[in-house]
Amino acid sequence: MYETATMENLQDIYDVVQCTIQTIYPRYYPAEVVAFFCGLHSKEAIAKDIGNGSVGILKADGKIVATGCFEGNHITRVYVLPEYQKRGLGTRIMKTLETRIGENYDSVYLDASLPAAALYEKLGFHTVKHERYPVGNEVVLVYEIMEKKLNRTCTDIDYDGRCFVPEMNSENGEVSGQTVFTYHQSGTLLWAEYGGGDIVKGTLIGTVLQNGELDFVYQHMNREMQLRTGKCHSVPVVSEGGKLELSEEWEWTNGDFSKGNSLLVEQ
Known about the structure:
Aminopeptidase, about 270 residues, Lipocalin, 2 domains, alpha+beta, about 45% strand, eight-stranded antiparallel barrel, eight-stranded mixed β-sheet, elongated, 5 helices
C-alpha cells in the first residue's frame, strides 16, 4: 500500500533515489547530468518534502523500494529501485498521485527524464514544452515538460449494470485482465459477481458513499479451490471518454492478510 512518508523513512528514501539515479541514468546521460540529478534530490530536499506531507513510499519484501512526491499539481520525484522495476510499482504510484492531485486540480504535469518518458506516455501524458538546462562543463540537460488532463472526481454514479476489468493489480492479488466484474446497485447498496482468469467464482457486497466511492467486502474461490476473502475501498473517476475507472486499495482478511492496489476500467 502507498503510504505517506515520515522522517524515519528519510534515509531509506534517499537511498532508493540515489541508487536508482546512479544505476539507471548513466545509460542515458553523461556524468555531469547524473551528478546534477543526485544533487537535485539531496537528503535536505527530500526532508523538506516529507515535512510538507507530499512524499509517499511503497514497501516490498519488508523494505522501502519505491517513492513518489508532488507539489501542487506537479509530480516531482518518482523512483523505483532497479531490481523492482517492471512490476507495476511506478504505475501504481503515478495513479495514486494523480488521484490525490485531482482532488484540487484539473491537470497534472511533470519534468520527464529519458528513462521515464515512455512510462509517462503510456499513462496518458503528452509533451507540452522542450526545455534545456546547463549543468556545467558545457553540458546541457535536455528534457520535456509533460502534462495530462485529469479525470474529474465522481459524485453521483449509478453502478448498476456496469462491467469492469482489472488493468493493474498488485502481485499479491489474484484478479487479472481476464477477470470480469459485473456491478449492481440499489440505492446505496452495491453488489457484484466476478470471475475469469484465476477466479472460479466471486461475489462482493458493500455501500456507495455520497461522493461515489465504494466500501465493500469480497470473497471468491480460486482455481486451486481456495476460498479468499478481503475488504476494499474504491475511488472512481470518469475518463475523457466517459468510462469509469476504479482506483482501489484492498486487503486480504484471510491467508497472509497482505495489502495491495488495483485499477479497474469499465468495458
